[in-house]
Amino acid sequence: MDKPLRMYFLCVHNRCRSQMAEAFAKHYAGEKVIAGSAGVEESQIHPLTIAVMKEVGIDISDQQSKRIDMKAFISSQIVIKLCEQVNEKCPIVPFGIMNVQWDIPDPTTKQGEGSIEEFRAVRDLIREKVLQLLKEQKVV
């Protein structure tokens, strides 16, 4: 078997979008990927993130919000930024690492609340983008 593809999903707080993307990559590609996620700032995983992922059969209740780990960052083959804000705050992606930008809306408001419908829409968009990326990389 070839070495697994190393993917690192980033957003500002690592509480929603990047958590979903990491979970979908692991779910669809299994041992063919080493997927991680992180944020520029650490937070708590939003309860609706856990709820909408559970709706599609993926349990992320044990995952934790994490800050960017530079070792994971530079050892990745692909870094996927899920929001524009990360571009401004994220370390520069080194030459030789594929740098992917997805501008996915944050389903939370400034108060940290969003509707379940907004979380579902974001989840479905992320699932589509993750599957497309995995297919492009010939992992699934």
Please give a structural write-up:
This is Arsenate reductase ArsC. Residues 5-136 form the Phosphotyrosine protein phosphatase I domain. It comes from Paenibacillus gyeongsangnamensis. This protein has five helices and four strands; from the N terminus they run E-H-E-H-H-E-H-E-H. The chain has 140 residues and is α/β, with parallel strands linked by helices. The protein has one domain (5-136): Response regulator (Rossmann fold). It has a four-stranded parallel β-sheet with strand order 2-1-3-4.
Number of domains: 1
CATH topology assignment = Rossmann fold
- Give the terminus-to-terminus CA distance: 14 Å
Helix content estimate: 25-40%
Report low-confidence residues grouped into runs of 5 or more: none
Strand content: 15-25%
Question: What would you say the CATH architecture is?
Answer: 3-Layer(aba) Sandwich
Strand elements, count: 4
Question: Number of helix segments?
Answer: 5
CATH level 4 superfamily: Response regulator
Name of the CATH first level: Alpha Beta
Index terms:
140 residues, alpha/beta, Rossmann fold, 4-stranded parallel sheet, 5 helices, 4 strands
